[in-house]
Amino acid sequence: MKYVNQPKTEKGQETLDKIILEAERLFSEKGYYKTSIKDITKAAEVGIGTFYIYFEDKHSLYQAILSEYGHFIRKTIAESVRTAGTRIEAERMGIETFIRLVRKRPSMYNVIWQALYVDKKLFVDYYTKFSENYIKQILIAQKKGEIIADYDPEALSYMLMGITNFIGLRYAIFDDQTDLDPILDEVMDMLVNGIYPHNERME
C-alpha cells in the first residue's frame, strides 16, 4: 500500500491494521480535521511514536485509507462480475455489490467524500481511477455491441458511477434494510429502456 511503511512482522501488521481501523472510524465519526494523531493512537492503544513508524503524518494515513478503499471496492466488484454473461448483468451485479459493501462499511462514504475538502486532488484522483477502470470495460462492451458505440466512454463512466453512488447513498446510508432486488430491477430497466418516451428522444 502506498503512503505506508510496510511492517516486516505479523505483529507489526496487526498494529498497522489497528491504527488504520481506528483512524477510519474516527474520521467517519468526528471528521478528518477534528481527529488528531493522539486520538488515533489512543483508540488503537499504541504510542504516538509507533504511529510514525508507519506514517509520515495524518495526511499520509488518510491517503492510505482512500487507496485501500479504492483497491478493495474495485477488486471486489471485478470478482463479483466475472460470472456475468452480458454487460447488462455485469452492471446490475456491480451496483448490487457496491451497495452491499457500503452496507457493511458505511464509514466509507463519510471518509471518501471528506476528501473533497481535505485534499481535492485526492478526491479527483480517487474517482478518476474508478473512471479509467470503468472506461476499459465500456470499450470492451462497445466493441461487442453491448453498449452503443457512439457514446463517449468517459461521460458514460461518470454517469454510471453517479447512479451507483447515489443509489448506494439511498439504499445503504439513508436506509439499509430495503430489499435490493426490486430496486435493482427498476434501475436496470431504466438504464436499458430509457426514461423518456421514444417520441421524446433526441435525434
From TrEMBL:
Which Gene Ontology molecular-function terms are recorded? DNA binding
Give any Pfam family that matches: TetR_N
**Looking at the UniProt feature table, which residue ranges are given for the DNA-binding region?**
36-55
Which superkingdom heads the taxonomic lineage of this protein's source?
Answer: Bacteria
Q: Per its UniProt record, what Gene3D superfamilies does this chain match?
A: Homeodomain-like (1.10.10.60), Tetracycline Repressor, domain 2 (1.10.357.10)
Which key words tag this protein in UniProt?
A: DNA-binding
Q: Where in the numbering of this chain does the HTH tetR-type domain appear?
A: 13-73
Keyword flag DNA-binding: yes
Instruction: Supply the name of the protein.
Output: Transcriptional regulator, TetR family
Organism of origin: Alkalibacterium subtropicum
